[in-house]
Amino acid sequence: MKVIIPTALRKHTDGQNHLSVTATTVEDALNQVVTAHPELRSSLFDDANQLVSFVNVFVNDRNIRDLENEATPLNETDEILLVPAIAGG
Q: What Pfam families does the database record attribute to this sequence (predicted)?
């Protein structure tokens, strides 16, 4: 499956706009992503290894908070999209 990396986080993935993983849950997929690109960990997880509240994770256009959070099951054809909150003024 594909994990789509937004522009704001690509500096942590050597400019890659997506990563390929093989996972059965969102948690497994995100763990694979941060294992491959450790610089992403602080952008996705807090010190307690919980997904930070200012990053939304979507599986096929559905927010995982409306599904089963990190336990959301995945299929081989699913796409995961990471969407960090953007602040400005």
A: ThiS
Residue by residue, what is the 3-state secondary structure of the chain?
CEEECCHHHHHHCCCCCEEECCCCEHHHHHHHHHHHCHHHHHHHECCCCCECCCEEEEECCEEHHHCCHHHCECCCCCEEEEEECCCCC
Q: Evaluate if pTM is beyond 0.85.
A: yes
CATH number, domain 2-84, options 3.30.450.90, 3.10.20.30, 3.30.70.270, 3.50.50.60: 3.10.20.30
> Using one digit for the tens of pLDDT, what is the confidence trace for 19-35?
999 999 999 999 999 99
